[in-house]
Amino acid sequence: MNIFEERESNVRTYCRNFPDVFHKAVGSTVYSESGVEFIDFLAGAGALNYGHNNQYIKQKVISYLESDAIAHGLDLHTMAKRDFLEKFSEAVLIPKKLDYKIQFCGSTGTNAVEAALKLARKVKQRTGIFSFMGGYHGMTLGSLAISSNNGIRLGAGVTSSHVTFMPFPYGYMENFDTIEYMETVLTDVNSGVEKPAAIIFETVQAEGGVVVAPIEWMQRLRNLCDRHDILLICDDIQVGCGRTGPFFSFERANIVPDIVAISKSISGYGFPMSLLLIKPEFDIWEPGEHTGTFRGNQLAFVGASAAIEYRESINLEYEVKLKESFLNTFLNEEIACLSEKIVIRGIGMIWGIDLSDRGASFAKAIAQRCYELGLIVERVGRDDTVIKILPPLNIEMPVLRKGCSIIKQAFFDCIN
Question: GO molecular function, one example (predicted)?
Fold first, then answer.
């Protein structure tokens, strides 16, 4: 028995599928303690959009550390926070004509979600929330209540309340007008469902199986919320920060959510950081009404500012579009053709190979074979039957091609 099995909790997950002891990582490549090289198509579950140890961001962080600047600052005014607020406003919000107040939450995405739910209920003076089947929003009680997977919900040990799950346009609901259904629920006096304070959604249900919401659907959802005086919350924690191309994943629908939850890659370097973007008229918090000891992670502010500069310097949005085109072509022409039961879904730099018709054991075998061949790739979706491709956005094209060729080899090995 090793020290991990002896002392680490049974709750550990990723290490069960990727059991090597990892030591070093650069760009899109990680190395085990023994020197084995792996291409990373997991990217810290979306927290490493700019790759491992991004050189530009790293140097900014090192310089900051060497200056003996503030490392932890609660919500005090600091130079690092001011620099981030100015950079984020000038480079992201103002050019996109977005007017948001910025709330720094605790260190993880689920805290941003909790804050969003809490604020929505305070603003609208209603308790209910509409969430969607297939949605995932975090592991704390409020976030679990709006996440649909029964397995993880049971882990809370208490009954989740004040949440109504609505159908997402996917699977057997794909040809069902889910927006019209919500309209009926909200207007039928006998529906038994009260008007919620907010509707929370993901533009791409990442953990739900890489399910991409249609543009028209998102536009109708925004309109529904406007007509019924309901706040629209976008959980952009995993697919924001350029994952779908633009900085925010909702931009392609030309909509503006009332509240946006951001985390994972916002810090640029994997530092814990989460924030809410709030339309100014809804920022009605009392001082200290929602706090967090680590909401003042100065290294995260430095990394976040550097990440924005890095994005601009390499025209990352354009790079994502080029790689999106490659992944779309490769997956549909090289993988989907292997079996009529394989379904490909994705956008930008998040793609899913849906093997639900082949079963969970087959999907697990594919992911395991990929790992044996030197590729780290995760399974998501119902029963973990979707292979999720989530490389760093700045992955070099030769490395991206090599990782995809490993996936193809894994399919050949497991099918034959």
Answer: diaminobutyrate-2-oxoglutarate transaminase activity
Query: Percentage helix, strand, coil, to 5, in the chain?
Result: 45, 15, 40
Q: Helices 298-314 and 55-66: crossing angle, nearest 10°?
A: 140
The tokens describing 32, both together, are 């085990």
Cα–Cα distance for residue pair 227/219, rounded to 1 Å: 13
Contacts of 396 (CB under 8 A, 6+ apart): 27, 28
What is the Cα 247 distance to its own chain's centre?
Answer: 12
Q: Which two tokens stand for residue 181?
A: 């259904």
Amino acid at 378: E
- CB count within 10 Å of CB 368 equals 16
Count of CA atoms in the C-beta half-sphere (13 A) of 71: 8
In SS3 terms, 292-345 reads as: CCCCCEHHHHHHHHHHHHHHHHHCHHHHHHHHHHHHHHHHHHHHHHHCCCCEEE
Distance CA 298, CA 73 (A): 7
Q: Which residues contact 209 (CB under 8 A, 6 or more apart)?
A: 134, 170, 345, 352, 354, 380, 381, 382, 385, 386
Please write down the HEC assignment for all residues of 7-58.
Answer: HCCCCCCHHHHCCCCEEEEEECEEEECCCCEEEECCHHHHCCCCCECCHHHH
For residue 223, what is the enclosing H or E element?
helix 215-227
In tens, the pLDDT along 141-173 reads 999 999 998 888 888 788 778 999 999 999 877
DSSP summary character for residue 257: -
The token pair that represents 136 in the structure block: 């995932």
Rounded to whole angstroms, how far apart are CA atoms 47 and 391? 10
Q: Which domains does the chain have, with CATH numbers?
A: 3-53+315-415 (3.90.1150.10), 58-314 (3.40.640.10)
Q: Are 50 and 266 in contact (CB under 8 A)?
A: no
- Asked if residues 209 and 256 have their Cβ atoms less than 8 Å apart, the reply is no
With cut-offs at 50, 70 and 90, classify the pLDDT of residue 202: very high
320-372 pLDDT tens trace: 999 999 999 999 999 999 998 999 999 999 999 999 999 899 999 999 999 99
pTM for the model? 0.96
State the DSSP code for 27.
Answer: B
Q: How many residues does the chain have?
A: 416
In this predicted structure, what is the pLDDT of residue 267? 96
Positions of E strands within 181-267: 198-201, 204-205, 211-212, 231-235, 259-262
For residue 294, the cross-strand partners are none
